[in-house]
Amino acid sequence: MNKPFFLFLLISCFLAIFPIDSVFADNTKCKLTIQEIRSSLEEKKIYIKSVTFRLNSSSPYRNANQEVIFVLSGGRFENQKSLDFLNSRKLQLDIASQVVEVCDPVVRVVFGLDHSDFTNGYSYHKGMGVRKDECSEYQPRGNNYLNWGEERCL
Q: Hey, where are the domains in the chain?
């Protein structure tokens, strides 16, 4: 059997057994923290549809390049509670700071509303902690590259 094919097969089997989320968040304390956050929000009738860990290639930090995305349910009855949460920058900042502190190597946390473009991002900045991402206007004919700590504004 050829070596590259065997390696590919081995990696594929590993990823089939361990979903990407569990590979990136293989930290018991992190998983417990995420579950506590989810439970706390659900007690306030803010329902989380999904929590996803993914790589963020624009991270300026060599060994910390992951982000966590919380997608809130945006159904007819949950919508107002989710919108109230998304307008509460202090609560989001507290949660994002907690996640970045506990879930190494996470450096960015995003909160979004299901079936919408409504998102708020919070990024870690060395020496300054976690901060709300700055609004960057979309320029259809210009440079659409976002710097670290920026997000698209609609």
A: 19-153
